[in-house]
Amino acid sequence: MAVGRRFGATRRTTTALLTGTIGFLSSVAVAVPVWAQQAPADGYFATPPPVDMTKLPPDSGQPDKKYKQSKGCVQRSTLGQNIVLKNRPWGQDYLQITKAQEIVKAATNGGVGRGVKVAVVDTGVTKHPWLPNLESGGEYVATPTNGQPKGLEDCDGHGTEVAGIIAAKPDDPEVGFIGVAPDATIVSYRQLSENYEPDTSTSTPPASNTAGGTPSSSTTPPTGSGSSLPPSEGGGGSGSGDGDRTSPGQSNGGRQLEKAGTAGTLKTLAEIIRGIADRKSADIINMSVDNCRTATGSITEGEQQVQAAVHHAALAGIVVVAAAGNATDTCPQNDQPDARKPKTIVTPPWFADDVLSVGAIDQYGSVAPFSVHGPWVGVAAPGTQIISLDPAEGSRGLANLTFESGDKASEIQGTSFAAPYVAGLAALVKAKYPTLDAKGIVNRIKETAQHPAAPGGRDNFVGYGVIDPVAALTQSLPSEIGNQAPIPPPQLAQLPPANDHSSTPMIVALAGTGGGVVALLITLFVMRTIRRNRPEEAASRR
Fold first, then answer.
1. Which residue, among 149, 111, 34, 139, has the nearest Cα to 512 in the 3D structure?
2. pTM
3. In angstroms, rounded to a whole number, what is the distance separating the alpha carbons of residues 542 and 537?
4. If pLDDT is split at 50, 70 and 90, which confidence band does 320 have?
5. pLDDT at 99 over 90
6. Which of 128, 158, 311, 373 is catalytic?
7. pLDDT reported for residue 214
8. CA-CA distances (angstroms) from residue 58 to 17, 37, 271, 273?
9. What integer is the mean pLDDT of 184-211?
10. In this structure, how many other beta carbons lie within 10 angstroms of the beta carbon of residue 16?
11. pLDDT tens string 479-508
12. Cα separations in angstroms, 183 against 40, 107, 166, 284
């Protein structure tokens, strides 16, 4: 009978241990998928890796390689016929720029943005009579022609239009257009060009003539050298010519770094940013240039260099503004269900801790279809039907058309032209609040924006919302007096649930429930087995 008791006790102990083991393994088996969903297994997607300051390159002050001009520079068919667009751009009225300028002027008893320097890192800026405060910054494409100062040659026309939105100051009272901060100083850096290409020969690159037309060279003229920017019909503000040749939902306003057959790399962009920070040559940096690539879960060396550079600039107290990027055939829109796993990465906006990236809205107040979405978007501003300075050399007028690839005239639109609205606003805030540091300026722009109806007052389309210059210049912010800024209340609109919510809590709950149910079933089975064995044990005792 003692043997029977020992056997029964051993069987019960074995059964209990088996129950616990199976229950534990069942829970682990269910929980494995939860672990796998915590973060991308192969690297970085929405959130970049930590900054590696060892990647910060020194500023060479020159191009990283030799480039030659391959297309003719932007020009008008007849430079003597300058176009005057008398209407104000819709974005100017939408943002109440005139009222914002009056506020700054009254507060400073002087110019609007005077004393503030904005670095425009782009295709260069052409001298224009309506851009009186223009300084040379640097040249990273080619040796300046005709004795031009470095950075003050814009073969593409893009940088001049960007600079005009920031600080143009027309002297014609009939002109409605004006820059956001017309008394600010533009410091121009020519960093890229679609009209230049890497020079693999040993010959001297062709140079543009004073009219900005066909390069003067004994070789065959570059492709597109006879192109010209068509004037507008009647000066009414609507573009004539070819119009917008892009596909629906795409933009012509971007300038892509490291695009095949063009000049401009992430390395030289990082060099310029570092140089500005080291020399304190600007208070604000505007970059309407970017690099777009497929999200691979990794980071390139050029991206690491830019990441280190913008962090270096932020630590130096510089406001860094960048265009959020434009959707194109080679830069697909981030329309995937999970915003944390974008299919497209845009640099510099990706580094949102140190960069204020700007999305675009259209004249109806809606998100422009070409504006690339992403967790890095900070704010938004007008980016369609843009009017700015005519970039053709020798011009004294305005333009509402821009050039693509040297010979495609299209309406001016893109996040490239939304970003300078924000850079201009940063200049106004800097002028009115001279003791406010760079982080404070960025926070003021974000906190006073027209927040979207989304959790936390931001989304992946317009960030914290469309900028509100008047509010940015007048509101008292709790965050500036030591209090936490209030979280914007959600709007009353009945909106469908967001599709970018985290599924991890639900998976964890289901995993725990499933494991518990399995353990319960096993326990019930074991208890039933034990009860059935009790009569045999009682009989053995007798």
1. 34
2. 0.76
3. 9
4. very high
5. yes
6. 158
7. 31
8. 65, 39, 6, 10
9. 75
10. 13
11. 777 655 556 555 555 556 656 566 666 777
12. 47, 14, 10, 14
The strand pairing partners of 293, in sequence order, are 345
Q: If DSSP codes are grouped into helix, strand and coil, which group holds residue 468? A: coil
Instruction: List the beta bridge partners of residue 389.
Output: 398
Q: Which has the closest alpha carbon to 274: 233, 318, 240?
A: 318
Q: State yes or no: is 172 an active-site residue.
A: no
Beta 185-190 vs 134-139: how paired, if at all?
parallel
Mean pLDDT for 401-418 is 77
Q: Within a 10 A sphere around the Cβ of 487, how many other Cβ atoms?
A: 10
CA quadruple 168, 169, 175, 180: dihedral sign: positive
From 59, 122, 156, 354, active-site residue: 122
Q: Is 216 a catalytic residue?
A: no
Task: Considering only CA atoms, give the Rg of the chain.
Answer: 30
Q: Contact at 8 Å (CB) between 359 and 343?
A: no
CA separation for the pair 441, 249 (Å, rounded): 32
CB of 102 closer than 8 Å to CB of 178: no
Res 228: pLDDT: 37
Structure tokens at 532: 């059935």
Per the structure block, which two tokens stand in for 218? 């004994």
Our answer to whether residue 158 is catalytic in this structure is: yes
**Residue from 416, 451, 459, 468 carrying the catalytic annotation:** 416
Task: Please tell me the number of Cα atoms within 13 Å of 80 on its side-chain side.
Answer: 0
